[in-house]
Design brief:
The chain is of the alpha/beta class and 258 residues long. It has two domains: 177 residues, Ribonuclease H-like superfamily/Ribonuclease H (Nucleotidyltransferase, domain 5); 60 residues, no CATH class. The strands form two sheets. A five-stranded mixed sheet has the order 3-2-1-4-5, with helices on both faces. Strands 6-7 form a two-stranded antiparallel sheet. The radius of gyration is 19 Å and the shape is globular.
Length: 258
Amino acid sequence: MEINLKRPLCFFDLETTGVNVVKDRIVEISIIKILPNNQEESKTWLINPEIKIPKVVSAIHGITDEMVKDKPNFKEFSNEIYEFIEGCDLAGFNSNKFDIPLLAEELLRSEIDFDLSKIKTIDVQNIFHKMEKRTLSAAYKFYCGKEHEDAHSSMSDTRVTYEVFLAQLDRYNELKNDVNFLSDFSSIRKSIDLAGFIYENDQNKAVFSFGKYKNEEIDKVIENDPGYFSWILKSDFPNYTKKILNQLRLNKLNNKLK
């Protein structure tokens, strides 16, 4: 089956130094760009994270400090990576919770104003969990009848994710071959910052998902407790989350001035 696309869709996977979106770094990124005519372009970047890769993590993805010590850092690759995905929607496996937030952090640290507001995101893992309720290797076995021999190689994981996605489209008639539908379907809830600290409630209002103001509208928190807002901006939250909060504060200020 071919994907019905109006603009390119980039499947991607990250290998990293760990799973903390704020503190950890990318060591490898692979992207398969599917063009509207369903032709493919693919690229892989091996990156020096400029921090130690824990041995327990290297044991999983096979990338060591020695392998990346002479490679460029993310900032040196950032323009090339951004140009490759610019104007594209994004897809991956567990990408809404991890890969996209971490990619956004790296781009923002590289002074690239990455904005997800006009990007559709498809999380193949969420489709899998909604339709069958389980790892990427299990999904590959279930949907494609194949063993994932090279798990935790970023290009292999990216290729397998793409194959699983195509098999999902073939298997489920209720899945529309449409990026807008698939983006909505693969989202667990409407997370505005993707890291899960800010989401949209049933009234389409931005609310916090944590802390003493959990489920409270952010506009009201900004007005009633500006110190809490300032604390978040100074604390160890993802840069993209802070970017969204600043946008919400600016929108509120602009609305007052109208």
